[in-house]
Design a protein that fits this description.
8% strand
Length: 75
């Protein structure tokens, strides 16, 4: 299948891809120490934040950004 002509300029598509990366927490680091989640269970603050927001990001945020990228690219 041949791709259609992009609907958005390349710099806009690049910004959407960067937004997707940030929303996926691919390079996220919060610079905090280990947090205690339960009495004997601890994890890094990065792991805690990523896990607590995973469902929201995967179920709603990332698909919306993917849809915008596909539209902008002409798919």
């Amino acid at each position: 299948m041949k791709l259609k002509k992009p609907r958005a300029p390349v710099h806009v598509i690049d910004k959407l891809r960067d937004l997707h990366s940030k929303a996926a927490f691919e390079r996220a680091s919060f610079g905090l120490d280990t947090v205690v989640v339960r009495e004997r269970d601890s994890m890094t603050a990065d792991e805690f934040c990523k896990e607590r927001t995973r469902t929201y990001r995967q179920a709603w945020l990332l698909p919306q950004i993917d849809s915008l990228i596909a539209w902008a690219e002409g798919r």
